[in-house]
Amino acid sequence: MATSLTAPGKVILAELGIDPINLSAKIPIEQLDDYIAVINWLTDYEPKPDAPNMEKVQGLLEAFHHLCEVENWEEAIKILSISLNTPTNEYLPTQLNTWGYYREVADLYNMLLGNFNRDFDAALLDTLGNSYNALGDYYKAIKYYQQCLAILGQLQEPSREGNILNNLGNAYFNLGKYTQAIKYYQQSYEIAPRYEILLNMGNIYFAMGDYEKAKDCFHRTMIKARENKEIRVLGGAFQSLGIICRLQREYEKAIEYFQQSLTIAQTIGEPLTESQALGNLSNAYCDLGNYIQAINYQQQRLEIGRKIKDRRGQVRALKNLGNAYFLQEEYTSAIECQKQSLTIAQEIHDRQGEGSAMVGLGTCLIQLDQSSAALRYLKPALEIFREIQDPMGEWNTLGNLGDAYCAMKMYPEAYECYQQSLIITRKISYQRGEEQILVKLLEYWQVYPVGLVSVTQKRQSAEKTLLELGKAYQLLGDYDKAIECNHLHLIAVQVM
């Protein structure tokens, strides 16, 4: 295979024990065509220098498939065990994951499942879980992890069990089920205290709004990753610290972390991490009001998704690009991006991406005074998030539905949406989300017509919201705003 990513085809054939000269003497005639195909793909196939990553390793993949056809499983595994000449020198399937080809990796391992011993099946089930987790099919990922855990329990391999418990935590985290995620992370950490788990624990605290605990976990991860020269983990820690700094309005420091993460991703050839860093840089520049720079980074992220054919990544990039145009009040461009994101999400059955794009379209239409049209996107989005059990998506959609109903002067419906959203934030301990909904409720009581409730009822509701908002700001560490809310509450009570 004439490419710098692998050893020469003749070397690989020797490792596989395939002798092209004496092939017909050693191989049954009914298998001969497949073995000839293996030889041709490994020796004659030459990808173009600028070929996409998948085409660069197509010779190996085709050889793998032909070996599976003749049920030569041991030699097929040797193909997957080839270390590629990339900055990280990863094995073929690991490198495919790095490039974002999760579904293709899942297909490879599904072909091998059940054809070896239980120990090997456990490794395959772990990898299948990782692939489906990356694809956003979290329940299928959990199914594979649980099957793997059952096998490892029989084999009595606690260290591997610890790794699977960590992966289960990741899947439940992605579903927004933080209590279950923490349980699995803690079990994993008790078995093997690793810094990757610290990073994951930090993500949980972050999602729950406990930024100081999250920051501590991320900082400890960064120190340990540097000590052990784990560059990939270090890049993840930089991204996480950057996100925390951004939410704490330390934008320059956030950008510095994101840039460091971006540099690492580009150095080791990890486009998915590069894509995430570009997206985070875009968000930071959005916060600074530099929408041109934000759009530039998001467009780079989109180009990466298209280059590696990461359609799920394209869904996210287009959605966020639409959000950037929205903040710049370029609603036509924002709607176009969200529609493209929605189309791709529906084509690949990305339910989370579909719901997010619908919410993006709904928010644009509200700003264009087309709230009734917005409902046609927001209502199905709510159904999607409830169907896939995504509490964060449900919280966000309910908040936007409340805005749409408010704009339509349908105040009871708006209030019901805000209340449901508030309940979700408290159920999953999402303090930042609680603060946002309480702000919406405070604005709601300011526009709510006096004729629908008494003046006293309206005032009391506004006072209660102010008091709750003050508590929310205090928990978030935003003490100036907490004091302001409590001061306003005190004035309102004194006026009564």
User: What is the averaged pLDDT score?
Assistant: 85
The proportion of residues forming helix, as a percent range, comes to over 70%
Low-confidence stretches: 450-456, 487-496
Strand content: under 5%
For the secondary structure, the number of strands is: 0
Overall SS class: mainly alpha
Number of helices: 27
| Whole-angstrom Rg | 26 Å
| Largest sheet properties | none
Distance between the termini: 83 Å
The backbone outline, from C-alpha atoms, is: globular
Order of helices and strands: HHHHHHHHHHHHHHHHHHHHHHHHHHH
Describe the structure.
The structure is a single chain. The chain has 496 residues and is mainly alpha-helical. The chain has 27 helices and no strands. Helix 1 packs antiparallel against helix 3, helix 23 packs antiparallel against helix 24 and helix 23 packs parallel to helix 25. The protein has a domain of 101 residues.
